[in-house]
Amino acid sequence: MLRGISQLPAVATMSWVLLPVLWLIVQTQASNCAWPKVSIQ
């Protein structure tokens, strides 16, 4: 029980780190493809 609770901050930190990384990957893929560029540059 305590072990699972102590792992929650690590999971939350990983999710906050992975979300911007996934967003950057989506942005780079969108700029490489012929998709209309929605991002402000």
Automatic annotation (TrEMBL):
This is ADAMDEC1 isoform 4. It comes from Pan troglodytes. It comes from the Eukaryota.
